[in-house]
Amino acid sequence: MEKITQPVFPKTTEIHYNDPMKIPFAKGLGSHLAWAVLPLGGAVWSFRAEAWGVSAALLVAAAAYSLFMLYFFRDPERVPPEDPALVVAGADGWVRSVEDIDETTYLCQPTVRISIYLTPWDVHVNRSPIQGAVTRLDYSPGRHVLTRNPQSSEVNEHSSILIEGDVPCLVRQIVGPLVRRVVAWLDEGQALARGERIGMMKFGSRLDVYLPRDRVEVVCRRGDRTTAGVTPIARLRKDL
Questions:
Q1: Are residues 67 and 85 in the same domain?
Q2: How do beta strands 225-226 and 125-127 pair?
Q3: Which of 32, 53, 86, 129 could lock 232 by a disulfide, CB 3.0 to 4.6 Å apart?
Q4: pLDDT for res 7
């Protein structure tokens, strides 16, 4: 793949951390909250029919659903570390594995793959591990096997985001048995700051980050807790 010239970042691409006007919820919350109208409508109908127990149960269901959606779609502000040589985690969760992989589709070279497993209780907004430009966006349909399975990276439904910066970085959003949708809020050619929001995976999943094996030093290990846009997972080697 032809090397992309490092983009110039205009002010419009800067991240405004801790912006008091920023609504702390991810895109798509409204459409999911709209489903609460169904049990609310049922509660009103039951109330008019004097079915008090049914009405109360439906109100509780609507409230519980709405509260879970608010919790799941939370999108707190994040500030990446100052050291520009650090590659940051793309997702909240736990480092499931750190493996050497020959990536033959996008990076076409030996890579290290850092896999982060998300539970339904983690923040599911994903962030860019590096500063760079989006050079390729792909979607691959597939299966929905457990993301703990090493083969899920290839056989499960997933999206692939290739970012070219000081090093190329492949980010892969992978669905699991409960996850039915991954979303990338990106366009090809878009410039990204390190730690900038890139998309979301809904209701538990896995995010893989591929980096050139000989260009980085891994600074995380299996079992580490990660915070998207904040936790270092690798460092660019300065001896190259």
A1: no
A2: unpaired
A3: 86
A4: 39
